[in-house]
Amino acid sequence: MAKNDRMGSGLDLLFEDNFGEESSEKAVSTLRVSMIEPDRSQPRRTFDEDALNELAENIKIHGVLQPILVRPIGEDTYRIVAGERRWRAARIAGLTEIPAVVRDLTDAQAAQISLIENIQRCDLDPIDEAAALKRLIDDFGMTQEEVSKTVGRSRSAVANSIRLLNLPVDIAAELKAGNISVGHAKLILGFDDPTDQLLLAEYAKQGCSVRELEKAAEKLRNKPVEGEELIKQTAEEIPAAKFADPFKKYSIETEESFKQSFGIRAKVRKEKSGYSLKLDFKTEEDLKELIEQLTASLS
């Protein structure tokens, strides 16, 4: 049997070597919902409320068909390793008990199973998935090749996913929220300049296809002024309220103003301690000329 055919979920990985079908059934217990707590460090950070309510309605009719996986952490207290979504939906449905498989696991074993379970079920947004894949490497010493085989992805797919963690925080948030796609994000990562990345992200948010963003990116790379004008034309048509952060539109307009007024490239950034303005000069003479202009305007 091929490796990928044997993958299944994290629960399959847990049981396939130690339990047959009969033993798995005997391992299922019924626990009170109130005795179970979620794992605060699990990779999945958000749960879709509508999807949870839909699952809860299904559980009211059919019950919880697949047991959750938990581990004991104290007397009559258990922590979820896999299945938090089912546990949450069961609570919404008003269930007082839930089927569960209880296993004694170390913190490392529980974390690894939880990561693999979430990744294989495609339950994570692109950023949370990338963080989970990286954690398998950083915390458990797995290579990218080992991770790719474990989660049933190609090695290049694993590498490209982890690379998404290099996105600026604001753009990563747009990806998490679904306002831009992974394809958009990969193109944005091809630029090192934060201003260029921001321009492309704002353009992507307006619903352009990956192909359209590729054309804009190529123009920005080969003809910076033309490329920026192409993207800014779109940005100027969008009310400030549609920007996730109004400061982004202000920064684009400020940078454009410096270019038009002084012929220099400016970068406005939001820092942890405040804001910064960076000006790039080709020559010392350009710097002196700007200082003279600013001095004259203040006198």
Average pLDDT for all residues: 78
Radius of gyration: 26 Å
What is the 3D form? elongated
Strand order of the largest sheet: 1-5-3-4-2
Secondary structure: helix percent: 55-70%
Q: What's the number of domains?
A: 2
Number of strands: 7
Low-confidence stretches: 1-26, 237-243
* Class by alpha and beta content: alpha/beta
Cα-to-Cα separation, first versus last residue: 82 Å
Biggest beta sheet attributes: 5 strands, mixed
Number of helices: 15
The proportion of residues in beta strands is 5-15%
Order of helices and strands: HHEEHEEHEHHHHHHHHHHEEH
Describe the protein in words.
The protein has 299 residues and is of the alpha/beta class. It folds into two domains: 4-124, Conserved hypothetical protein from pyrococcus furiosus pfu- 392566-001, ParB domain (Alpha-Beta Complex); 167-298, no CATH class. It has 15 helices and seven strands. The protein has helices spanning 10-15, 21-26, 49-62, 84-92, 107-120, 126-140, 144-151, 155-163, 169-177, 182-188, 194-205, 210-222, 224-236, 246-262, 284-298, and strands at 28-32, 36-37, 68-74, 77-82, 97-102, 265-271, 274-280. The strands form two sheets. The protein has a five-stranded mixed beta sheet. Helix 5 (107-120) packs antiparallel against helix 6, helix 6 (126-140) crosses helix 8 and helix 7 packs across helix 8.
